Every structure is written in structure tokens, then in C-alpha cells.
Amino acid sequence: MTTCEKGARKMQPELTQEVPLSENAQRVLEARYLSRDDASQVVETPEEMFRRVASNIALAELLYDSDEQTRRHWEEAFYGIMRRLEFLPNSPTLMNAGTDIQQLSACFVLPVEDSMDGIFDSLKHTALIHKSGGGTGFSFSRIRPHNDMVNSTKGVSSGPLSFMTVFDAATETVKQGGRRRGANMAILRVDHPDILDFIKSKDNTDRLNNFNISVAITDRFMEALAAGEEYELVNPRTGAVVGTCNAASVFESIVDASWRTGEPGIVFIDRMNRGNPTPAIGDIESTNPCGEQPLLPYESCNLGSINLSRFTRGQAGMCTIDHEKLEMAVTVAVRFLDDVIDMNRYPLPEISELTRANRKIGLGVMGFADLLMRMGIPYDHEDATDVARDVMRTVHNAAREASRRLAEERGAFPNFSRSVYAERGEQPLRHATVTTIAPTGSISIISDTSSGVEPVFALAFVRRVLDGAELVEVNSTFADIARSEGFDSEELMRRLADGESLSTMEEVPEKWRHVIKTAHEVSPSAHVRIKQRFRSLRTTPCPRQSISVTTLRERTWPQCTVLPGKTSARASRSIATAVARFRC
After folding, report:
1. φ and ψ of 174, to 5 deg
2. Tens digit of each residue's pLDDT (9 = 90 or more) over 437-464
3. Which one is catalytic: 86, 285, 292, 454?
4. What is the model's pTM?
């Protein structure tokens, strides 16, 4: 029996413990996840959904000389961690495993070439991916700028923004598996001649609503920003320098647009490629729609998240983390995600080939804010950053060890010999990447826990249902604490839902008024500190919010100078913090 199997068996006795789903979870599952018949009627329960997924994914065990008993063992292990809401895979796996679709990945990156054939091939491939439930990322940086020459017609190019609108319109038309609209990431290099138009492209809130956009920031741009210098704009068609821009002025444009509309984000593209595990295979150009998963062109990744709020022991306010239980869950989750790669029906042969060659998985976490509440630690306290580092170290180390053992059992990922791991003489791994931190929108609702590593947005809110009735919905961890500590009341929950802060409520014990904070009560610097702790112990970035210019660290960098009279005070502070973040 392998170590993985022993760990999974130790978790089996808890399988009989029922974990009731919240009303919100039931609604989300019925709307998007549970199987339907030809009349569009729901025909499975949540438990049957978990069983469908576990049974289908465990079939991959038979590809590795396992017998039926071993397959059943892992089916039960997979079912257990999902049914107990300790781990959930990304939405396409929950929706499509064991169905005719069988497309299980959430994240894809497609190339966009500088030709009509290349552009519209990518558009077609995008529609296929969205139809099956995936999201797509693109770099439009290869497309020649507007008004550039088109040799075949002797006319002029319309530029990358015009083609982004075509992709946006197609996304609007094609719903993901008939259940939700698709999502895209558009990235443009900061040295592209159309960069200023790109930065302002979402000033009109009626366009590009199916895109997140991010500027790919280069090392050269950051050096120019720090020195108050100009930097060069390069035509991607010819490689020729066609102009210069003042780096501080461009950065102010980014800050201003982000301040007004929330976009663009920024991606440190050169720094990201320094962390590319397979540079010999290709360069990273883009990420998935939320920015947490950098991928090569024609690469996909399947994600899953550990629900940290399920791994505590002790009394509310004094809970500790059950590291042994957490490590066992991570081991099972890594094997689950590895099996997903083999059971996946990829939408394109190019994606199948590269995904299987690199075998990237992205195991992340959710429920961090709920975990802190159970431990009695404020989100913005220094102890919270220690918990972040501690818990992510456990997840990352356990995931790497599980990947190493799977490499012994099943072989390293095929491109391992061309990876940075082989160059450094490291032990073989089954996966080019193992951890990433996703925002966990729907699956955190199903798990009834806080999203990703974010603070709780609200402790209570009012839901207005179709008959006009108003229902007060309350964060479940907070509700448990309120009941156990004796300050639970319908009137208090209503006041919270109406916007009153818990910190002002005298009837709540002072300890809990200090401990429990929402996102509006957490400073940007405290928020980013948490992201940095998680970021230091994982193989891919946090979601793109962590690199938004509106939440950069509040500190200065002595080598950063700002041109007098050319930047606003807000942009000046952001320039200093951006350079500090880049250099650290």
C-alpha cells in the first residue's frame, strides 16, 4: 500500500459525517452544476454529483495498472473530500465529469497571431472552449498596431483593439455549456504602439464587458519608470522602434484608468517568465481570465481548492490548524487533479498535447478568512500573516511531495528533462506546477466559506426573492461564533445587513468586535501583506487583484523619481510602490 493510500484510508471514517449544504449552495448547484434531463429538469442530487465526479475521475487509476479494488478505493477518497467540502475542483470538472462533454479544465491560453487566418482560428477555438465551460486568456501583443501596413491589400491595419471587440462579441453570444457566459483575459505589452488606447479601452463601460485586461509590464519599462525616463515602443510586425513614451506618464494613465474603472491590471511579464518552469518549451504570454494561472500558448490547467475552514480543531476563537489532516487532504487532492488530466477531453489536439506534456495542476485554498475567525485572529493582524505563511507552507510542501511520489509511481511529466527542475538537479516531479491561488467564486459558495484568501466581504446581507420577501443571509462561521458566544439575534443580523459595522455594536463582546473585520475595514496594505505571504510559497501567482495598481504596497523606493508636474500625487505614490514591488 502506498503512502497516499494510507493517508486516504485514515480519512475514510469521517465519510459518514453529513455536511449540510447552505441554501445558497443548493441554489448555485441547481442553477449550474447538477445534471438535467432533456426537459431541462434537474435529475441528480448534490451527493450524486459528487459521486458522478469521483467515479469518473477514479477511472484514470486503471490507466496505471491498478485493479478495480484500487480504483474503488480512490473513488471513495475523492468522494469523501468533496462530500465533506474539504476540497472542490474547478467548475468544469464538477459540471462535466461523467457527462458527454467531459471537458474538465477551467483555464486556457490561446495564441493570437498577426494574420486574419490566425486571428479567426483563435476565435473559433475560443468558442469551443467557452461552450465546454472554460475561460481563455490571450496576448494581443503580436498584432500590428492600427494604421500599420497590410501587405496583402496595401491597406492599413485596424489594430488589436478592433479584434478584441470581435472576441468580446463572440463571447457574448456563446454561453459556457449553456450555463454561463465565458470570460477572457486580454494582455498587451507596455511597449506596443497601441498601449495608450488599450489602457483606456474600458472607459466606455458598454464595451469589452467579457474581458479582464492587463498591461504586460517589462523590466525595461520599470527601469525607465524608476529613472524618470522614456522607453521605446516597438512594432511587433517589424521589430522596429517606432516611438517613445514617458514611462511615468504611461503609468499615470494606468493608475487613473484603474482608479476609475478597476482596470487595467498589471502583469510583470519578464518576472513571470523568470519563474517559467519550462522556458525551453516556450514563453509565457498570458494568463487565465483572473490572472492566477500563467500558461503557455495552447496550454490548459485544471484547478482545485482546499477549504481551510474545515481543518481546525478546538473551540471557536482558540482553534488551531490540524496540519496532519490538511496534509492528507492535499495528497488526495493532488492525485485527483493528476487523474483529471488523463480523464479530460480536450477541445483541441494542440491543447491535449501540451497539457499532457507539462501536466500543470493548480491546487489552491479557500476559506482563509473563516479560518482566521475560528482562530480568533484579525485579518489585518501580524499573526494573520504568520498563519498565511504557515498554512501555505503546509499545502505547498505536501503538494510537492505528493507530486514527487506520483512521479515515482507513474513517471515525471514528459517535459521534465527540458525543465528548470532538471537543470537544477531536482528530483522528478509529476507536474510542472502544483499550486496556485484562485478566487474561488462559485465553489466557495458551494463550500459555504470565504473566497480564496480574501477577507469576508460582508457578515450579513439581504437577499430579495421573487415574491418580494427579504431574507437575511449570514456568514456561517460568524453565525456559529455568534450562537456559541451568546450574541446571536435577528435584530443584530439585520443591522449588519443594513450596513452597520460589528465594531460599533456594544452588545458584541469586545474581543469579537476586534477580531471580525470585513473587506471594507481592512487596509490595502494589510490585504497585500496576506497575498505576499501566500505568494512566497506557491508556484504561480495569486489572482490579478493582487497586482492591481490600486492595492500596491504603501511604501517608497529611494531610486524612484517622478518628473515634476507630469504626474498626479496618487500616481506618484503608485509609481514608488510599483517599483518597490517589482524590485523586492
Report:
1. -95, 115
2. 999 989 999 999 999 999 999 999 887 6
3. 292
4. 0.89
DSSP for residue 456: B
All three cell numbers of 492, joined, read 443584530
Please state the domain count of the chain: 3
In this structure, the answer to whether residues 168 and 279 fall within a common structural domain is: yes
- Active-site annotation holds for 560: no
449/371 Cα distance (integer angstroms): 9
Set 276, 288, 358, 475: catalytic member:
288
Give the domain range for residue 505.
457-516
Query: How do residues 34-63 score in pLDDT, each as one tens digit?
Result: 999 999 999 999 999 999 999 999 999 999
Which entry of 290, 301, 542, 560 is annotated as an active-site residue?
290
Q: Which residue has the cell 469586545?
A: 510
Residue 395 near residue 306 (C-beta atoms within 8 A):
yes
Residues 125 and 100 in one domain: no
Domain with 237 in it: what CATH number?
3.20.70.20
d(CA 25, CA 22): 5
Q: Measured over all CA atoms, what is the biggest interatomic distance in the chain, rounded to whole angstroms?
A: 77
54 vs 326: CA distance, rounded Å: 20
344: annotated active-site residue: no
- From CA 473, how far away is CA 481, in angstroms rounded? 15
- Alpha carbon distance, N-terminus to C-terminus of the chain: 45
Amino acid (one-letter) located at 4? C
Residues in the chain: 584
288 is catalytic: yes
